[in-house]
Input
Amino acid sequence: MPTGHEREPNPTEVRAGNLRLAVWDWPGAEPTLFFAHATSFHARCWDSIIRQFPDQRCVAFDARGHGRSSKPAPPYHWTAFREDLLALLDQTGVSGAIGVGHSMGGHSLAAAASVCPGAFQALLLVDPTIRGPEGYDAPFDVSFVRKRRALWASPDEMFESFRGRLPFSRWQPEVLRDYCAFGLLPEGRRFVLACPPDIEASIYECSREPETKLYDAVARVDIPVTVLRAGYAGDLPFSRSPTDPRLASRFPRAQDVLLEDRTHFIPMEAPDLVSGYVRRQFLRPAP
Output
């Protein structure tokens, strides 16, 4: 089989109700590694990690409102992300997968696993947006998100603008390249954000709705789970962990790992670290 750098995914799409979800499928051996991205990101942000598993089937997708997937008008209730994920698993024939989810993607994987036993054999939740019960009451002003720059001359312009400033300067350059290359869509002679600012803002606003709470639901997820939590304590926007420190204790079989020197953007800063946890804890060598 070719190396991970040579292997290209098969792009396809599935239907979730009236929506189209873009899916990227790298063929290979089972179990499937199934990746779910964070708010305002996209499937191809996982490329640097997927390259490290050249023999494994890997599947990543663009959530509604992101990447090449459909973009219905807000609001963006988080239960819809769970239902989309269940539709995707059904149509791609994925079962017994190792789920790897970051932030909102971690929430979606845990929510899907709580209602669909057998979909996953293990989960790696990377700083998932799963708060404690008290974390849904605090006010959350995301007005600045709607002011994000949405139009760019090219992905290269976006890369050059971002690479020298935080939090992007902490990212691995190849991850930032992928983020920019697949995070923009052509629009005439310009490029536009693949996750529009009004959609991103709606997702954050809806993240504190009562139905997003998973504190009781995760008790039904009786598979091995590893929760990676960011230990960063600074004041960069969206860089502190949204994960309840008690989360792992709510799963029947979970471990908590606190990464003292990492921000919320763990997969972007340390793709080797994330792939290492997948390999050591969930992938067994062939007999």
Observations:
- The mean pLDDT is 94.
